[in-house]
Structure formats: structure tokens, C-alpha cells
Amino acid sequence: MKERAVLVLEDGTVYHGYAFGHRGKNVGEVVFNTAQTGYQEILTDPSYNGQIVVMTYPHQGNYGVNVFDMESNRPWVRGFVAKEFSTYAAGPRAQQSLAEFMSEYGVVGLEGIDTRALVRKIREGGVMKGVIAHASAFGSPTHRFSPADTDALREEARKWTDIDGRDMTPEVSTPLPYQFPTFKGRRRVVVMDFGIKHAQMRYMAEMGFELIVVPGKTSPAQIMALEPHGLFVSNGPGDPSMPRYAHATLWKLMGLVPTFGICLGHQLLGLAAGGRTFKLKFGHRGANHPVKNLLTGKVEITSQNHGYAVDPESLEEFQPTHINLNDGTLEGMAHLRYPVFSVQYHPEACPGPHDSLYLFQRFLEEVDAFNGLTGLPVEKQRTDKLGV
Ligand SMILES: NC(=O)CC[C@H](N)C(=O)O
């Protein structure tokens, strides 16, 4: 018999379903993702630190998990919800089942609930805090949830400190600097790690960049002492207005070195330039968000995962370069005078389409133009041989 489990939202809504993955209980901000595949990349994307992710596609887990699709060294989601999880992992790339993977890393799962109703609720009411609890967290796998149990879980969700207003990046940023495994390149990029997805580094390594990854709290002087040709600002979790040290660092470095920011990196650059960020009602999380490139007029289908956005009205030194065609929010910007640009979405995909990979090429061109390296051959690095 399946073990009972519930999701209780802070507004008191209760969804009854069944336990999956690691047995237990966890609280987080409940968000939804509309990607049909890519659950392993989603689970291991550090930007989800603090969040319970609901997949809108009804069937998850069918192709298992493997060592290649890790976006960091472990999952970061606090809970994972789907209509139905496959217990069987099919396909030549599968090395482990999703159930085993979630159990191994302590990811509490829930299935068998009406995910469409839950997503409609979040779309209407905005993102909310919630708790997933399995019956065994109440002492026995055959436990039946009483109204007193769900009231207590609701209180637990309410009392949990909202990720809005919290710097969630120190937990996921590297504690010490390291070199991403690349050959010694003639173009050195310092990567500010706020919870980076490996795909971003893989693409840059393949393009011939030497990558030195530093903690998000690294000072401008320490960064410049590494003599970078370029600076990369990663994605990451939580409220972008909270890591104030990063705003100060990026403000000081603006114009000194060509800079490319993705997602949280984009938001931090906007804040560094004196701009403002705000929280979206339910965010953008999926693999088919249409974005218009205002410089070319072309539309890109993009991978997204963010709950905040930069207010374009608040920007003085940046011009908008990309907008979201669903809701008109800012998706990309470029500095008016310096080689500094950023996007809110994920050109590295993982999961998602590759329409926006040209941005990494643009970064390479900016780095070369600024450092007098134009004409230098790009030493393509085979990251598959490097074991990354
Ligand atoms: N993927 C990211 O970098 C997310 C940025 C930020 N934490 C947000 O939710 O908007």
C-alpha cells in the first residue's frame, strides 16, 4: 500500500497524495515548473535552494538519472511534486531511478495530487510557503492525517522565514576559490559563484576560457588580482536585493572588465547600477518562455527559472535588450558605455532549448575586443575529455 502524504499551504489548503523519495517532512516556497523533461537538472539547480518545486507535466522520472545531467553536486530543492512519478527508469542513459536518487539525497517527494489545481492556485494567489509531510514523519507509514495534523503543518509553513528578504546564496556558493577543469587558456574569466549551474561553466570551458571560480563574497581587489580578461556572474537562489556585498563589488568592477551575468547575476548587475528588483507573482519556470531580442527583432524560446525581475524603469546606465513576450518583463540588458551585459533567462538551457547560446559567443567577442585579443584563435576545449 502506498504511504499517505500531504502538501499544506500557508493559506490552509491541503492536498492529499502519496509519499515518494526520501521519507520525511520539509517546508519551502512552493513554485511550479512547466518543463516536460529535465527533472534532474531542475533538482540540482542551486537556484531552487529553499523551494518546493511542482512539475506541471504529469509524468516525471521515466528516464531515470545519471552522472552527466547534474547541474551541481547534489539536489537543492526542498521538495518535489508531480502528478505521477515513474518507479521504473528506462533508457540507455539511466544509471539510477529517480526514487533512489531522491532517497539518497534526502529529497521529500509527493505524488498523486491534482497538480493542475495547485498550479491554478499559485497563479491566482501568487507563490506561497508550504510543507510536504509523509505519514512516516508522524510516526507510522500507515498514519492518517487528521485536521489537527494539517493545522499544525499550516502553522509550520506560516512560521517559516520567507526566502523573500533572505540571502540564500552563501549556502550554495563555493566556500573556496577553485579552477574549473580546463586547459590553460589565453582568456581568463573569473566566475562569481552564487550557486552556479555547471552548464554555464561547461559552455565557457568548451569555448576556450580558463575559469577561476570564486565565492560570491570575494572582494573587487581579490578579483582584479586574478587578472581576469572577463568576469562572469552566475545564477543563484533567493532575493537578489539581499547580497548587498555583491552589489558593491559589481559596482566597483563595472567598466574595469567585460562582464556577463545570468539570472541572479543579471539582477545583481541591475542592483549594482542603482536599479530595483521586484518579486513576480508566480515567477517564470519552464523551458519554453518566448523572449524577444530587441537588437535583432528575433524571438528566442528560452529556459527560465526566476521569481524576481529587474524593473527597467529603474535603470539609467543600462538599456533593455530582451523582453518576455508573455508578460513584457525585462529579460536582458546591456550597459550604455561598458562591455557589460546580462540576461534574466538561461542561455545554457539544461534543461531547455539552445536558441540563446550565441550570448556566450558574444561574451567571447567582448572579452577579445576589450583585451586586444581579437584574431586570437579560439582553443576549443573538449570538456568530455576533461571529465566534466
Ligand atoms: N535562477 C536564478 O538565478 C534565480 C534568481 C533569483 N533567485 C530569482 O528567483 O529570481
Automatic annotation (TrEMBL):
Metabolic or biological pathway, per its Swiss-Prot or TrEMBL entry: Amino-acid biosynthesis; L-arginine biosynthesis; carbamoyl phosphate from bicarbonate: step 1/1; Pyrimidine metabolism; UMP biosynthesis via de novo pathway; (S)-dihydroorotate from bicarbonate: step 1/3
SUPFAM superfamilies: Carbamoyl phosphate synthetase, small subunit N-terminal domain, Class I glutamine amidotransferase-like
Positions of the UniProt region annotated as CPSase: 1-187
Residues annotated as binding L-glutamine: S47, G236, G238, L264, Q267, N305, G307, Y308
Gene3D superfamilies named among the record's database cross-references: 3.40.50.880, Carbamoyl-phosphate synthase small subunit, N-terminal domain
Enzymatic reactions: L-glutamine + H2O = L-glutamate + NH4(+); hydrogencarbonate + L-glutamine + 2 ATP + H2O = carbamoyl phosphate + L-glutamate + 2 ADP + phosphate + 2 H(+)
Top-tier EC class: ligase
Keyword vocabulary terms for this entry: Amino-acid biosynthesis, Arginine biosynthesis, ATP-binding, Glutamine amidotransferase, Ligase, Nucleotide-binding, Pyrimidine biosynthesis
The Carbamoyl-phosphate synthase small subunit N-terminal domain, residue ranges: 3-133
Subunit structure: Composed of two chains; the small (or glutamine) chain promotes the hydrolysis of glutamine to ammonia, which is used by the large (or ammonia) chain to synthesize carbamoyl phosphate. Tetramer of heterodimers (alpha,beta)4.
Protein name: Carbamoyl phosphate synthase small chain
Organism lineage string: Bacteria, Thermotogati, Deinococcota, Deinococci, Thermales
